[in-house]
Amino acid sequence: MAPAFEPQQDAPLELQGGAGNPSLAVNDGPKSRVTVVGSGNWGSVAAKLIASNTLKLPSFHDEVRMWVFEEVLPSGEKLTDVINRTNENVKYLPGIKLGKNVVADPELDNAVKDANMLVFVTPHQFMEGICKRLVGKIKEGAEAISLIKGMEVKMEGPCMISSLISDLLGINCCVLMGANIANEIAVEKFSEATVGYREKRETAEKWVQLFSTPYFMVSAVEDVEGVELCGTLKNVVAIAAGFVDGLEMGNNTKAAIMRIGLREMKAFSKLLFPSVKDSTFFESCGVADLITTCLGGRNRKVAEAFAKNGGQRSFDDLEAEMLQGQKLQGVSTAKEVYEVLRHRGWLELFPLFATVHEISTGHLPPSAIVEYSEHKPVFSW
Predict the structure, then answer these.
(1) CB–CB of 61/8 below 8 Å?
(2) Residue 33 annotated as binding site
(3) Is the Cβ–Cβ distance between 54 and 25 less than 8 Å?
(4) For the whole model, what pTM was predicted?
(5) Residue of 56, 206, 234, 301 marked catalytic
(6) 42 annotated as ligand-binding
(7) For the chain, what are the domain ranges?
(8) Which CATH class, in words, describes the domain spanning 233-368?
(9) In CATH terms, is domain 32-222 a member of 3.40.50.410?
(10) Catalytic residue flag (residue 254)
């Protein structure tokens, strides 16, 4: 079991402005306990952001638990032991101090048992299994937020990760997405994010308060599906952008791919969820996240290598070689999107999404990324 953090005395109220709205910092109820479920690159950065605020805000307990999938490092030490000894995730976020109030815990049940605010940030393909392990283990009245970019595709249709969490655990779930390359936020370079919520504005404000710092500006919109689909689908477009980079096609081509990708993101989102708002695509979770992911990020990087190798090396091989244990989201999301398109007869309406999957699985060469529009109709809103 992970050690407990020795809490410091709460900061005075006049120091509470770091969350972006000092008026929200008044403590008129029991303190909230936060657990981060996940400890990869982005999960560690999320824990760092949150921990800096729980020390300042009287409405939160200082300690932030972070569930870590236990690994044994080459040194023979357990990853959780090293994190708790050095205050650093030496595998997924080396060189960055997380905050002395972050406690790594390898036991999922123990990590969440006292938390009434749960932050989910793991690869999306693991979430159903994690949620099933947590059934009956979550504190009554807990709130969740998902930072996870992806979807589950079931027989009855696509299921967003926030819905999976809500359905399996019986709790409300917001989402946080945005132009958030984790390593840049870790060194406190300015960026933005968007919280998507349903109806309960006060809950969204609490999440905004928990994540906001002077270098991480968070806003909220009442559009969970729109925010979450932006964060999910942009990884598919980033794969396409990586193909363009690997083939050295230039900036004009990449800009065209990004524009077409944004159009397909919007069209797909609105077909699945007519409630999705046009304005959401102009938030950080929309066009900004699309731009930064197509310029940097792991999906673009690995797709570039895939194209440079002429599609002769699989994404699984490249992921294992290039990402040091981190997971791609774009390739699996492209497969899931493709399944939805095929099942509903929409393949011809989304030529870019369809082509990304067909290239990723070896059915088309990487060069097909700019050949599709000559042969298939383009769908627009």
Answers:
(1) no
(2) no
(3) no
(4) 0.87
(5) 234
(6) yes
(7) 32-222, 233-368
(8) mainly alpha
(9) no
(10) no
